[in-house]
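Working notes for the structural subgroup meeting. M.R. asked for a predicted model of this chain before we commit to crystallization trials. I am recording the input and output together here so anyone reviewing the notebook later can reproduce the run.

Input as submitted:
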Amino acid sequence: METRKPISHVVAGLLIAGIVMVLSMATMLFTKSSGKPGSGVFNYIIIIGGLIYFINLYSKSNDYQVSFGDLFSYGFKATAVYTVLFIGFLVLFAALFPDFKANAIETARTQMEAQKGVTEDQMEKGLEVMEKYFWPIAIGGTTVMFVIIGAIGSLIGAAVAKKRPQNPFEQLPR
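Returned structure, recorded in token form:
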């Protein structure tokens, strides 16, 4: 039986980030909206599905001799990779499309107007805060959401992957 080299968590993160970036660009291109790149249920499904797939491949390439912690660790490392890459994509996207920030603020204004019970004064204060702290909000929000989704995907992937960890007591010399 040939031994397989496991796919690195960096490669897994790169592939997931690439797919999410392409999907985000396609979504923004077809909907003509650049308000929120990276948000959306499809991106989250791709992230979770990708993590489950790569965690299963990692388990299989190690002949299933891995523990839950090993598999979760692999998935969470891949989460860190695609999160950093997507934040870089977000900054690059904003540099290429200068109206990105204005569109995001306009999208927030539209959402606030649709809510009942939000006064004009509250809306203006909220938009001022968003204008002032746009990048910390965008980067922090992306990081938090991707890490939460990545943790969920890593937990599911580690739970469903086949495992046969070795018993340390069976390895003792007799």
